[in-house]
Description:
Blueprint: H1 7-17, H2 28-40, E1 45-47, E2 53-59, E3 66-71, E4 76-83, E5 86-92, E6 104-109, E7 112-123, E8 130-137, E9 146-149, E10 154-157, E11 160-163, H3 169-183, E12 189-196, H4 204-211, E13 221-228, E14 240-244, H5 252-268, E15 275-278, H6 285-291, E16 296-303, E17 309-310, E18 315-316, E19 319-322, H7 323-340, H8 348-355, H9 358-371
Parallel strand pairs: 3-12, 3-13, 13-16, 14-15
Antiparallel strand pairs: 1-2, 2-12, 4-5, 4-9, 5-8, 6-7, 6-9, 7-8, 10-11, 11-19, 14-16, 17-18
Helix pairs in contact: 1-3, 3-7, 5-7
Amino acid sequence: MSHYVDNQRIEQVAAELLPIWTAPYCEERVMQYIAAFGEKLRLPVEHDRHGNIIITCRKGKPKGRIAFAAHMDHPGFEVEGVWEDRVHARWGGGVPPEYFQGAKVAFHAGKHTVRGVITEVTMRPDGKRVDKVTISVDGWARTGDTGMWDVTVYERQGDLIVSRVVDDLAGCAAQLLALEYLSKQRAAAEMWAIFTRAEEVGFVGAAQLVKTRRLPKKLPIVSIESSMALPNAEIGKGPVVRLGDRMTMFNQAVIDLLEQSAQQLAKEDPSFAWQRRVMDGGACEATLFNSFGYKAGGISLPLGNYHNVDREKKTIAPEYIHFNDLARCVDLVIRASLNAAQSEVSLDRLKASLLEGVEEKAANLTRRRARSHWKDLA
């Protein structure tokens, strides 16, 4: 249940966006959907020369602003060559090599879907990751076609959203829904929604935003990810305020803003659930932004079958999240945007709470010292 957005609207956007074909460097269909969404809201939609998209929503006279970032790709394949009933495809993303041989793959071949089975796997020179695959197919694919695991495309199973892609199109959906809500309100706010390319192969799109200095250095950034469920980051118990990832710890001022926002929502609605922890099952774009001097934090949606890997059954499977986790993530993005508009994102609130009552208690320090001398304490 969402505090701000109708659940049916959340379901509608998820059902439209998550089934779209995507892979590293093959995000064009997702890009088209996102750009059309922003244009329909009559918001500025910017495409940089690398294909990243920035949509901004500014209402009233906000005193501060905030950005959210989600990536448009997902681990997948791109056809590099076709020979009779075989396809040679480049792989991009993090999936253990033992899951490839014999796995089923589907390709978007124009108006048709071509299906096949992986028959050969070629490793990268380091021997740790898959580089390319050969697939026996039942139809005619074309060079450049996008391939994905042949699993459930999109389905609601009770409270769960089950899809071949959750990471990170669910994060993209959360940003779009927040933009839609804020664009129709009068409350002061300035939200930047950043949609990046080729995250799964090394933060490639986000790195170009940093290198070209497209993002103002004082702009706080929150990475939204669907991340491997972990102890204290469980599916169905709310979005996770991410304290860090496998590589770095995140900016405390941004963490404080997100925690303050979550606490407010929980006070207003006791059913609002949220979690906090270091999500060290992987790394996200917040690490990149922090490393280059931005204030960055993260929100995670606890994810089942991360990167389509069912580790219990040792097979490829659709990913899944809890619908309420997505709905509450949308709420958190909206509330954080509204709170960021009240003042620049800083540690002022945290400092004030830490110093509350300290001066009165400090009097005891001087009183005790007046009564004793260090030489009398032996």
